[in-house]
């Protein structure tokens, strides 16, 4: 029988170490795990490598980690936006590293990491600045770049509902980068609106199976985190 452990939000991320690689779900402000990010800002873990679709959609998203000097490298598709000034300033000072990845390639690199595929070839970004220095091979008369999978030490994801085992259901546009990121980390922490009992979720609606989810934060009942041990 799986034992469960309840903690508060801060304790759910308390074991995060400096230098960790963190995958952050969301697309703009949709499906962004804001409460987990806020807790990490309070914790102050530094030298993070953060993987996210974008950083500038909301001031209390990934941009807050950058402003708090917690990020050494950001891997994303869309680094610009209303809250990207701190990133630009740090890039100019050389205190942060930026890797821009085409959006489809970013999603596939994360998916590959979750599937145990170390690398793959794609025609995206061939003969562009984003492809410079990458291995190129020709298949059937077309050039392809070798792209390496992305895996994380932690993943922060946002879902609508979960059962006590951690099966996740997403609401509308929450289902963006969250499902693939949930599969590609050693420890996946999900913040959800509601945690229900086993059997109360229609199996056909489950997007992320519980095998990928290690900890749950229920937003409507602050102070509880469900951890599979």
From TrEMBL:
Keywords, in A-Z order: Transferase
Give start-end of the signal peptide.
none
InterPro entries listed in its UniProt record: 3-oxoacid_CoA-transf_A (IPR012792), CoA_trans_fam_I (IPR004165), CoA_transf_BS (IPR004163), NagB/RpiA_transferase-like (IPR037171)
Protein origin, superkingdom: Bacteria
Q: Is the keyword Cell wall biogenesis/degradation in the record? A: no
Q: Which PROSITE patterns match?
A: COA_TRANSF_1 (PS01273)
Q: Which family does it belong to?
A: Belongs to the 3-oxoacid CoA-transferase subunit A family.
What is the protein name given in its UniProt record?
A: 3-oxoacid CoA-transferase subunit A
What is the organism field in this record?
Psychrobacillus mangrovi
The opening ranks of the lineage are: Bacteria, Bacillati, Bacillota, Bacilli, Bacillales
